[in-house]
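4.2 Preliminary Data

To establish feasibility before requesting continued support, the project team ran the inverse folding procedure on a target of 339 residues. The structure was first converted into the token representation described in Section 3, and no sequence information of any kind was made available to the design step. The complete token record follows.
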């Protein structure tokens, strides 16, 4: 048993160490660089409750700007990666991503509508969150009415159709929006980013993500059985309909929370689970924690590049696509197939 667990523990420790290094570098670099000794001094002062002689500019950049952004990136990356590996295991399809059931399109339509109506930021987030949940609810109800076909295939097809319909609604709002104010706001929200995340966003989004992760952790052994056919899983004592509904609700909850605070960030939920499988294998109790760590690190690293590598800040969704698509092609070429 020790010989089996030891490599896994070593791999997870390396992932944790790599993630910590990326987070520390993210705190240091930027258009306003901060020396590692200054970060250590600020952290020590914050933990001990003492005072520091660091300039106010450093404290503001460190705690008011970078800290919410970096912790938000960790939360969003972990959430999207966990939802991706859950969907792929549940649907028995390695090409499924968190947006397959229309979550991203529903959240995008809700946020676009709120922006078009001139509502405050709080209502943009509320309507984005509600739009994502409503989209998945519509997909599930549509699929539930079709009983004579493969339920997984019907659910995916319904998600594609609903997502396309909601995407058309977003396009209509973009055409009708004020090109000087509303259209840029809608466009930048749809491209995703962490620049607008506040500590308040983390306060409400964090518990929702943790709540959605609870069933995934508790049912991690049973989720492995979802890779079997429905008949085989039922024979082994799994209530397929109830399990699938619970996992869809959980994955939808954490995806909607992530999309609401960061906008639409693609490729994380698709690519990261494949990277995790390559490292720890397909067994879900190993795949989930590895996906959480890799997803969190990937988003924070991509956001660091987005705000430092160019004269202007790139939207995060663009950079994750630029990085995620080649990595996906590399994984495909390396393995010869998608697992």
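Position-by-position output of the design step:
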């Amino acid at each position: 048993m020790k010989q089996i667990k030891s490599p896994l523990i070593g791999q997870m420790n390396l992932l944790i160490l790599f993630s910590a290094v990326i987070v520390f570098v993210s705190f240091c670099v930027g258009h306003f660089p901060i020396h590692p000794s200054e970060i250590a001094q600020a952290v020590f002062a914050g933990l001990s409750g003492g005072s520091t002689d660091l300039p106010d500019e450093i404290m503001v950049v460190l705690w008011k700007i970078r800290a919410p952004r970096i912790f938000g990136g960790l939360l969003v990356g972990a959430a999207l990666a966990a939802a991706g590996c859950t969907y792929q295991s549940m649907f028995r399809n390695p090409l499924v991503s968190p947006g397959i059931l229309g979550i991203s399109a529903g959240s995008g339509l809700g946020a676009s509508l709120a922006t078009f109506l001139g509502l405050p930021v709080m209502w943009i987030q509320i309507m984005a969150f509600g739009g994502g949940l409503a989209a998945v609810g519509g997909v599930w109800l549509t699929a539930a009415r079709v009983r004579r076909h493969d339920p997984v295939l019907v659910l995916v097809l319904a998600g594609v159709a609903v997502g396309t319909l909601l995407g058309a609604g977003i396009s209509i709002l973009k055409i009708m929006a004020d090109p000087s104010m509303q259209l840029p706001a809608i466009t930048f929200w749809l491209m995703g980013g962490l620049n607008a995340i506040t500590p308040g966003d983390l306060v409400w989004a964090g518990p929702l993500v943790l709540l959605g992760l609870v069933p995934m952790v508790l049912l991690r052994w049973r989720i492995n059985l979802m890779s079997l056919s429905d008949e085989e899983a039922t024979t082994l004592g799994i209530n397929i309909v109830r399990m699938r509904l619970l996992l869809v609700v959980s994955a939808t909850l954490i995806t909607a929370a992530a999309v609401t605070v960061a906008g639409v960030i693609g490729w994380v939920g698709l690519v990261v689970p494949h990277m995790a499988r390559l490292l720890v294998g397909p067994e879900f109790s190993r795949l989930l924690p590895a996906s959480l760590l890799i997803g969190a690190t990937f988003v924070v690293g991509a956001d660091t590049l987005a705000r430092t590598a160019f004269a202007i800040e790139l939207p995060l969704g663009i950079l994750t696509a630029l990085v995620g698509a080649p990595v996906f092609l590399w994984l495909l070429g390396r393995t010869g197939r998608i697992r």
